[in-house]
Amino acid sequence: MTPSSPVVSTGDTVKVTINSIEIFGTIESIGLTATESITEYGHCWSSTIYAPTVYNDRTKHESRTDTCTYTSTLTNLKPNTTYYIRAYAINEADTGYGNTKMFKTLNDKPPTKPFLSTTIPTDVTKNSARSGCLFFSDLSIFF
Description:
The structure is a single chain. The protein is mainly beta. Helix content is 0%, strand content 44%. It folds into two domains: 7-104, Immunoglobulins (Immunoglobulin-like), CATH 2.60.40.10; 111-143, no CATH class. It is built from no helices and eleven strands. Strands 3, 4, 6, 7 and 8 form a five-stranded antiparallel β-sheet that branches. A three-stranded antiparallel β-sheet has the order 1-2-5, with no helix packed on it. The protein has a three-stranded antiparallel β-sheet with strand order 9-10-11, with no helix packed on it.
């Protein structure tokens, strides 16, 4: 029997914030090994490398002897940044990787809320007045 690497798939996100991403992964097969166990599994990620490996940033879960679906929380991420993420699992034969998925953290600056400002009334009479307004939105001004 020739040893083989684990089979892993990268899942969808559970939660995305300005500096973290929680994501699913699945160990579909532990592979063929003498010990029949996974020594480590989790997710690896990068903001610059499309197919990150365990030599990039990664989460680590301890060993197991069966298949499972799991979550990892990627932390200390930069706001408003795209990350490439892959699930991984390591056995004594090799490292298996899931497909690369791309997710973006949230922006740390809240959107500008539009507001309306009226001008001082002029030409005031008993029955009328002349006025105007300014509408501000995302640094644009509308008259």
